[in-house]
Each structure stands twice: as C-alpha cells, then as structure tokens.
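Write out the 3D structure for:
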Amino acid sequence: MAAWYQKWFDSPYYHKLYFQRDEAEAQAFIQRLLDYLKPAAGARMLDVACGRGRHSKMLATAHFDVTGTDLSPQSIAYAKHFETEQLHFYLHDMRLPFWVAYFDYAFNFFTSFGYFATQREHNGAMRAIAQSLKPAGILLFDYLNVGYAEAHLHTEEIKKVDSTTYEIQRWQDETHFYKRIRVSDPELQVPLEFCEKVAKFTLDDFTQMLALQKMQIEAVFGSYNLEPYNAQHAPRLIVVAKRANA
C-alpha cells in the first residue's frame, strides 16, 4: 500500500491547494538565498523533493545548473516540460543515493522532509542528500518551526480554490503534526481524503542528523526574509549546513 505522501503529492489537488500562490514571494526568497550564498556562476544545484519544479525553475533562470528530483511521477512528468540545458528533472526517492559527490548545493524547500515512518529512513534520506554534495558543498533545509507551529495550530479550516473545496482538520501529538484534508470537487463522484503526517523535527534534531553525515551547521534563519531564528516565534526553521572537506 502506497504511503500517504505518494498518493497525496501525486494528486493535482495537492498542487492546487498549496502552490496557486504569489510567485513573487517565492522568487524573493530564492533571490535572498542567492545573495546570501553567493554561488559561483554555473554552480551545480540539486532541488530535493522538487515537486513540479517551482523553485528549480527559479534557480535555473539565475543561470545555475539545476537538477530537480521527486518521487511523484505526475509532478516529474509536468516538470519535464520545462527542461533546458541548465534544468533537468528525475523521478527519484530521496532515501536512495543520487549522483554522489556531484553537486555544489542541495536544497529541500517547503517542509519536504519528515514524512517517513522511521528515524532510520530519515537518516537514510539525510545520508543520501549529503552524499550528493561535493566536499565543502552546502545543504539547505526549509522546514516548519515546531514551537511556532504548535502555538499557531488552527484545528479546522475550510478553503476554496476555484471550484474545489478543502475541509482541513489539524492536530498533533508529542512527535508529529497531522492534517486531514477532505477534497470536494464537481469533477469527483465522491470526495477524496488524505492525511499528512510530519515529524516534529527541531533544530537539535537537524543538528544531530547532519552531524552523523559530517555536516556542520553554518547558519539558521527563521523566515523567508532570512531573519534571525527564534525557537518560539520564528515561522520557519531554515538550516544551512556545510559538508566536510574530506
């Protein structure tokens, strides 16, 4: 039986719910990252769990060599329509090795981590991503901030996007956040239901997982404006880490 993320991320309703939003905000975030990181011209970049390639396309437009990977066949099929000499997409599970010691930078945007059933799988994904980097390569995780998410958990919400209605319920336990999404649409004979489950990974958790792969944290930001991180008040946990030279 397919895991929840395999079914949900392959659904067009997932993209309709999350990504019909202001592209200017995402573009501004990418530009801030590039201003901070200062990548060399033509640097090789990996976008892990790229979805339909939203961020990958922005990075490629800035003249870097970008590869996006995702385990959703539908998302990769869509993204491949935008491939160029500087932009490539592959169907791939982040838990498995991919082009070892090839990339200068690896990115994981929009809380695209913490979905797996076991810590061993999360460690395996971290290892595979770290191994894709050259020595001294840079890895960036854009994750939810647990303290902020706990304090701002909206338990019920109804959201309408065009003709689609999303009934959303949220809850939590000690280790995970959960979100049940019921999708109603005139094109559906019966509503669809999905349930997200995301691990409550803190900065300490990322520090430990990265250290296992000889990655050292270089910076931590708390928002898409790259403001300082605060465990209780920052909306995001954006971690920048560097791979050891050898």
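The chain has eight helices and eleven strands.
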